[in-house]
Amino acid sequence: QKEVEQDPGPLSVPEGAIVSLNCTYSNSAFQYFMWYRQYSRKGPELLMYTYSSGNKEDGRFTAQVDKSSKYISLFIRDSQPSDSATYLCAMSAKGSYIPTFGRGTSLIVHP
Amino acid sequence: ETGVTQSPTHLIKTRGQQVTLRCSSQSGHNTVSWYQQALGQGPQFIFQYYREEENGRGNFPPRFSGLQFPNYSSELNVNALELDDSALYLCASSFVGGGPHNEQFFGPGTRLTVL
To answer: How large is the greatest C-alpha to C-alpha distance in chain A, in angstroms?
Structure first.
């Protein structure tokens, strides 16, 4: 079992839909949780990070962490074709500067 | 402020050869990490350099080695290339010491193909 599990998709949705992306993990030491977006042929860029459990909102994006279930989510409201990309979850333990990545979910938002 | 840059963009090598990939960190950053991203997979941590010393290593053999220079630029060297080394190699720079969490900024990557 991998430390971080993420469904590779692809996930195809119509423009304007609410998108839910998820990851599960097994290492209870993880404290920092991150979501990266990676466009084709580009490096990942950090979208959001959260510390411990709870919700965090930034514009159309909301990140949720449920440490009791070892489950994190990223919600995208009013999805746009420009949101089409691979979304990677990543997490690290306190004091560690090295994140462990999921394999990424490919999202396609069609007009 | 310039971002993280990597060179070359693409590279084709044959099995058994050696390769050097280069990374220029974002201004003000003191740490560089290297990752290998195979097709359809997430980035896998290779190693990290902090102030020119290796500061952590993932599950990669010794033929993967690196350097960080005083200007915080970095190199990744891979000897005795194998077909499975074909991947996107990502460099990420960050500033360690500014708080409990350091954001990593990734470069665009170097796509290595081993034939």
So the answer is: 43
B8 touching A (Cβ < 8 Å): no
Nearest to B107 by CA among B95, B94, B96: B94
Question: Own/partner pairs for A65-71, CB < 8 Å, 24+ apart?
Answer: A65/A33, A67/A28, A69/A24, A70/A24, A70/A25, A70/A26, A70/A28, A71/A22, A71/A23, A71/A24, A71/A25
A24 touches chain B (CB under 8 A): no
Over residues A9-66, the pLDDT tens digits come to 999 999 999 999 999 999 999 999 999 999 998 999 999 989 888 899 999 999 999 9
Determine, for residues B92 and A43 on separate chains, whether the beta-carbon distance falls below 8 Å: yes
Q: How is the beta sheet containing A61-66 ordered, strand by strand?
A: A4-5, A19-25, A71-76, A61-66, A54-58
* Tokens describing residue B39: 């097709």
Distance CA A76, CA A101 (A): 20
Give which of B12, B27, B30 is closest to B81, Cα–Cα.
Answer: B12
A35 touches A102 (CB < 8 A): no
Residues B84, B13: Cα–Cα separation, whole Å: 12
